[in-house]
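Pinned message: reference record for Ribonuclease D
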Amino acid sequence: MSESEPLPLLTLRDGLPAVIDTAEGLAEASEALVAGEGPVSIDAERASGYRYSSRAYLIQLRREGSGSWLVDPIAFDSLAPLQEALEGSEWILHAATQDLPCLREVGLEPTRIFDTELAGRLLGYPRVGLASLVEGVLGMRLRKEHSAADWSTRPLPRPWLEYAALDVEVLLELRAHMAQELEAKGKTEWARQEFEHLLGFAPAVRSEPWRRMSGVHKLRGRRSLGAARALWQARDEIASRRDVSPGRIVPDSALVAAAAAMPTERQALLKTPGFHGRGAARYTSTWLRAIAEAAALPDDELPTRAPRQEGPPHPRMWADRDPVADRRFKAARAGLLALAAELELPVENLISPDTVRRVMWAPPATRDEADLLAGLGGQLADLGARPWQVELVAPVLVRAAIAGDVPPPEPPD
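Predicted structure (tokens):
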């Protein structure tokens, strides 16, 4: 196909299936999926940006010999028949870390996974979004205009359902092509270990999630930070209770502006930049109470300027605090970047940057190469590195640990 020739647009192979919202329909889908063969492609649609929860509002499935199925999980107390039908089969997901939590929430748990996004990273694709992979691997164009839709809408519009059904059609083809490419590049075992690791994925629980508010870093003073925290917590409670995305009540920018100004009266609050709309006015007393509580906090209960940090300091501080560790880290970073380029994959998929930081801050004390290799390999494994990563990365870190002990040459007089 020439560069100027437009890509063919994907269309549904078997037409649009009806949305399943009855026990009879779920039983029919489950029986059909059991009768099919090979892996099952699965996708879930959430209402991010509209709802507080990350629950699934539509689940799409397809298997060779079974056809495609669209299931409305909101209509069911249990999807146990579907889980039983899928037991033992390989699930094809795209960006599994996004879908696994909401699938688990409705009782769907895989025992084997093939993640097309992660496969794309291991294969060195520059863009690993589903539409980009479909274009690069299959040479087809996939519509993505409904990816940010409010999937809690009922009934779901037909164009949205067509978009959703197409996603699971292409996953089957993508998996077949990418599995062949992984085998050709000697990366099948890497992928197997990565997919197995994904089975234990759980979203990180942040100790101070309010610090992720856009613009909060601009605040000066711990009292303002305390107000930002209190306002965030108040908004989060409202959003959770109403199952509405927090930003649709009051945006981050408004909370940060109010935390900086700390108004004490309704009119002053509503004049704060961004503090307008029904969410701002409806909960005025809640916002003012949060600000007042922050204003009354004793100093020792106010948040610190910098978030609490676990583990070693940020590497930008190492040159002053521990020059030897700084040299180790820089040597490791250079070696890993070179290795990742040679292997044609992102360095963060070769090894987690946080793992490198922790290991290079406190490697084993020995400098016997064999002992150091064993010790570093053990540290990497304890921090969650997979065997294929340990095998490739540990020798690079051994060289970096030894190089870090050598002081830089004295500048000439």
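Pinned by admin. Summary line: Strands lie at 19-20, 37-45, 58-64, 67-71, 90-93, 112-115.
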